[in-house]
Design goal:
Blueprint lengths: L4 H28 L3 E9 L21 H6 L4 H4 E11 L6 H16 L5 E5 L5 H11 L6 E4 L12 H13 L9 E4 L2 E4 L4 E2 L8 E2 L7 E4 L2 E4 L24 E5 L7 H8 L4 E6 L7 H12 L3 E6 L14 H4 L2 E2 L5 H11 L6 H10 L1
Parallel strand pairs: 1-2, 1-3, 3-4, 4-5, 11-12, 12-13, 13-14
Antiparallel strand pairs: 5-6, 6-9, 7-8, 9-10
Helix pairs in contact: 5-10
The protein binds glutamic acid.
The site of glutamic acid has 12 residues, from loops.
């Protein structure tokens, strides 16, 4: 019996199409085969910023979404199998506790599954060091978590975002990133969340770790590692967000010549549970300020002495008698990072000795 020639042709065409789409699917599977599965969580910032005119310094942070960020760097697909999520789309000057809790919980949930090997968070640079350190304290995984941003908007001449994003994904896929705690990738450098600070308002070379130096280098996706940090973080952190609905209010006050104590009193009256002083020199401040803070400690407010300087340690009992006054010395942590640690530590204890231990160990 002869089949109808058209029916045979149709069957052959269908078979061909099935084989072709199967081979496309196989090719796509092969392309992502063995590649790390990286989730990019976007929060906004200059990396997602756009200008109306390239000659203007004015731009809008958080104008592009996560899919546009990924699409701008097609070669990312060669590094990893990627998925994107938009957690927020804000300038990081508006970063707040609610977004931190949402971001941290989402990262913990993703990393707890076997389907995600690492996370890249795109973020504004202004408060990136705070978010990175916050995540460093509350993420319960040794899988890589890398924050990345840009000093120039996506539309700028010489935009740094695409290269930074490429390097961040490369770091997140690198076996050496595992167990190092949360990392920040900017301008061909890798930094530990605990050590890194923003040091320049506009220059692409803004992120530095003044006390300890960078955690590594990354150039065109190739990574070189330096010594890992010896402080506790991520999978070794005892701080966590379990049972934490809201973080306590902690304010930072800046010390200077002729410092009065009115603003310290106002902060306590406004409900601050902790105060961080961006002190002069080795975490110092005026006599008036010391007296008001000593009274605040007696009322149950935690006081941390940090420094307004860029580097060096704030040493316990050096110029200020912390033992007598019940203060905590911030050690290596600058005011912004001290505030993050104090917020989390206060969910556990108000005891100055215990708080001091957190500042030594984390
Ligand atoms: N203020 C904005 C932010 O932090 C822009 C700074 C930046 O991302 O470089 O999101």
């Amino acid at each position: 019996m002869h089949r109808h020639p058209t029916a045979v042709g149709l069957r052959l065409a269908l078979l061909g199409w099935l084989l072709l789409s199967a081979s496309h699917a196989a090719a796509a599977e092969k392309a992502s085969e063995g590649k790390a599965r990286i989730r990019i969580l976007a929060t906004g910032g200059t990396i997602a910023g756009a200008q109306t005119r390239q000659e203007d310094s004015a731009y809008k942070a958080g104008a592009l979404d996560v899919e546009q960020l990924i699409a701008a760097v097609p070669s990312l697909k060669q590094l990893a199998s990627l998925g994107g999520e938009q957690v927020a789309n804000i300038g990081s000057q508006d970063m707040n506790d609610a977004v931190w809790l949402k971001l941290a919980r989402r990262i913990n949930a993703l990393l707890a599954t076997p389907d995600v090997d690492g996370i890249v968070v795109t973020h504004g640079t202004d408060t990136m060091e705070e978010t990175a350190y916050f995540l460093n304290l509350v993420i319960r995984s040794d899988k890589p978590v890398v924050l990345v941003g840009a000093m120039r908007p996506a539309t700028a001449l010489g935009a740094d975002g695409p290269a930074n994003l490429y390097n961040a994904v490369a770091v997140a896929t690198h076996p050496g990133a595992r167990g190092r705690g949360v990392l920040v990738v900017m301008n061909d450098e890798v930094h530990a969340a605990r050590n890194v600070i923003k040091t320049n308002t506009t220059n692409v070379k803004s992120f530095e770790s003044p006390n300890r130096g960078a955690a590594g280098l990354v150039h065109t996706g190739k990574v070189t590692w330096f010594e890992p940090v010896d402080t506790k973080h991520t999978h070794r952190s005892e701080l966590s967000l379990e049972k934490v609905e809201k973080l306590p209010r902690v304010d930072i006050l800046y010390a200077h010549a002729n410092m009065s104590a009115d603003l310290l009193e106002a902060a306590v009256k406004s409900g601050a549970r902790g105060l961080v002083i961006a002190g002069v020199g080795n975490g110092n401040m005026s006599q008036q300020a010391l007296e008001v803070l000593a009274r605040a400690v007696k009322q149950g407010v935690a006081v941390v002495r940090s420094t307004r300087l860029m580097s060096g340690l704030v040493l316990r009992n050096s110029e200020v008698d912390d033992d007598k006054l019940g203060f905590v010395a911030s050690g290596e942590l600058n005011p912004a990072k001290s505030r993050v640690l104090l917020q989390l530590a206060l969910t556990r204890t108000k005891d100055p000795a215990q708080l001091q231990r957190y500042f030594q160990e984390y």
